[in-house]
Amino acid sequence: MGEGTEFKPGDKAPNNGHYMEFGDIGLETTIVDPKHVTLRKGERFPDTSNKDRVWKKKHKGKSH
What we know:
With 64 residues, the protein is mostly beta strands. It has one domain. The protein is built from no helices and four strands. A four-stranded antiparallel beta sheet has the order 1-4-2-3, with no helix packed on it. It starts with 5 loop residues before the first strand and ends in a 7-residue tail after the last strand.
């Protein structure tokens, strides 16, 4: 079993990290100016911009 990757407003953060709004993306639309938050383990996620969005951990890009 692994940790979940999508979080709803009010859920507790499983780890310290930077999280970004994600969701309601269609083939022709993208989120404009998504919210970003930095949370510590156990802090609750704030509300998203609309009910169809969730929070996901923002991963650092890999460099080669």
